[in-house]
Every structure is written in C-alpha cells, then in structure tokens.
Amino acid sequence: MEQSFTNEDGLSVVVKVIETIKSNREYLSEVDSVGGDGDHGINMSKGFTMAEKEIENQGQINMSEGFKIISGVLVNKIGGSMGPLYGSFFRGLSVASRKQAAITKEVFGAMLEKAYQNIAMLTEAKIGDKTLMDVLIPAVETYQAQESASSFEECLEEMQRAAKAGLESTKQMAAKVGRASRIGDRSLGHQDAGATSCYLILEALAEGTKNLL
Fold first, then answer.
1. What whole-number distance in Å separates Cα of residue 24 and Cα of residue 155?
2. Domain-by-domain residue ranges, the chain?
3. Of 41, 123, 195, 203, which cross-links 25 as Cys (Cβ 3.0–4.6 Å)?
4. Domain DhaL, which positions (predicted)?
5. What is the dihedral of CA 89, 46, 38, 205, to 10 degrees?
6. Residue 169's CB: how many other CB atoms inside 10 A?
7. Regarding the domain delimited by 4-210, which CATH topology (the fold level of the hierarchy) does it fall under?
8. Cα–Cα nearest to 94, from 126, 61, 120
C-alpha cells in the first residue's frame, strides 16, 4: 500500500468531501432542527454546491487549490457561524499542503493541525461544550498520537474512530454555546449539528485519502 498520494490526485478527496455534504443535506438539517434553525444542511449543501461549480470551471487544479476554493465560498457567500468556521478549516488544509507535491501522513497531520488552529482562533469552544470541537479535537489529537508508529491508513482509521466517539459523546451533553444553548438540557439525547457535519467532513477526508493509498 502506498504511503502518499500526489496533490493533483488529491482533488478526488475534495470531490469526496463535496459529495458527502451534498448527500447529507436532509440529515444535517434534521439534526439541526433540535437546537438550531433546521437549516444547517441546506446552508452547507448550498456552499459546497457553489464551490463544486467553481472548481469545475477552473479546469486542472490540485487538492490544495480545491480546498482554497471551498474556503473562499464558505467565508464570502455562506456566512452565519459555520461559514467562517469551516472556511477557516478548509483554508488550513489548503495552506498546509499547497507547497507539497506529495501528501504523506506527516503532511496530512500538518493539514489537520493547521485546520484546527484556524478554527481555534475563531471560537473558545472546547470539548464538552457540544460543538464541532467535540469531534475535531479528539480526531486531530488521535491522528497525531498515531503518526510516528502507524501507517498512513492506520492513522486515518484511528482518527475516524475518535471522530465517531466524539460525535456520539455530544448526545450526552447540554449545549453551552451557540444557538442550541438556548434550549439547554433539552438538547440532551441529541447529537450536535456542527459536530455531525465535522464528523462527515473528517470521514470523507479519510475515506477519500484511503482510496488513493
């Protein structure tokens, strides 16, 4: 099994992320209907569909450029709270990989770290607050903990397990930040919408990457 893929081939990972969000449009909005406005899936799908069209119009681009396009669309055309957060996330993936012709497990780890750092600059949310950070932080930390001793694929699989566990954990939490905090304990028993979309994005990143290894 290969331990890297080219930045050019990595455009398929970008496509995988876009397709995943679009296909989960109704699911994300359904999850969001408990503590939010019920439009998370609509807004996310709208943004990723717009990015998809822009990418198709660009011709030959690589993974880093694809993530940069997603970032720009989410920040400039979607807005709300998720636009800037996920825009910063994808900007991080792009910046950390744009000078790399080959994407190794170390480069991927740097991409995750930069994406996390970008979001952390915009929110004070931490583990236990019932947000996307309940998925992102354990996923990134788990990947990094595996990096020195495991294969690229093993790192991804452990990251996926941690992300899934993080998502499940939000069901046991009362929302403390964001719109869902308005209903407090009534959000118990329901997973967070932002955590759900974060899980789907990380899952798509991992599966798309494994398809290239």
1. 25
2. 4-210
3. 41
4. 8-207
5. -40
6. 18
7. 1.25.40
8. 61
